[in-house]
Amino acid sequence: MSGRYIIMGVSGCGKSLIGSLFADRIGAAFLDGDSLHPRTNIAKMSRGEALTDADRAPWLDRIGQELAAASTPIVIACSALKREYRDRIIAAAGGPVRFLFLQGSRDLLRIRMETRPGHFMPPALLDSQLATLEPPGPDENAVAVDIAMDPSDIVDALLNGET
C-alpha cells in the first residue's frame, strides 16, 4: 500500500468525509486540499466562476509539495479532475501517488451539493466540473468507487481496491 493518496472527484462527491475516514482506517494524516487554494480561487468559485487551468496550477503544485513533504502516510482531498492535473501533482510530489476516485451520478452529486451547509462551491459549478472531469485511465495508479454506497462501504471498497 502506498503512503501518498489523493482522494479525488468533482465537488459534492464526499472527498472530505471519505478522505478523513480512509485516513483514519490506514493511520494516515488527512488534509483537505481546499485549505491550500489561494484566496483568489476561493473568491472566484464563491462567485460561481469556474477555475481555469492557470488558476489551478499553483494549487496543484502545493498539493504535490504537501505529499512530497509528508514523512508519514497522508491523504489529501483534491478534485484532480484532469490527467494533466494528476501528472502535475505526481511531478510536484516527486514520486508515486495513489488516486482514489469517488464517482457518482450528476443527480446524486447535485443533491449533495444543495444540501451541504456553508461550502463555498455553488451547485451551479457542478456541470463545469463534470465537463472538465477526465476519469483516471487504466494506466494510472487509481481505484474508482461509486459514491452511492454508505461511507464505511466506500472506504472498504477503496481498501479492497488497494490489494
Helices and strands in order:
Layout: E1 4-8, H1 15-26, E2 29-32, H2 39-46, H3 53-69, E3 74-77, H4 83-93, E4 98-103, H5 106-115, H6 126-132, E5 142-146, H7 151-161
Parallel strand pairs: 1-3, 1-4, 2-3, 4-5
Helix pairs in contact: 1-7, 3-4
Task: Please give a quick description of this structure.
With 163 residues, the protein is α/β, with parallel strands linked by helices. The chain is 47% helix and 15% strand.
Number of strands: 5
Task: Estimate what percentage of residues fall within beta strands.
Answer: 5-15%
User: Which residue ranges are poorly predicted, with pLDDT under 50 across at least 5 consecutive positions?
Assistant: none
CATH topology: Rossmann fold
What is the total number of structural domains?
1
Structural class: alpha/beta
Q: Could you tell me the mean pLDDT?
A: 87
| CATH homologous superfamily annotation | P-loop containing nucleotide triphosphate hydrolases
**Per CATH, which architecture?**
3-Layer(aba) Sandwich
Measured distance between first and last alpha carbons: 8 Å
Number of helices: 7
The backbone outline, from C-alpha atoms, is globular
What's the helical proportion of residues?
40-55%
| Rg | 15 Å
Largest sheet: 5 strands, parallel
- Oligomeric status of the shown chains? single chain
Strand arrangement, major sheet: 2-3-1-4-5
CATH class descriptor name: Alpha Beta
What string, H for helix and E for strand, traces the elements in order? EHEHHEHEHHEH
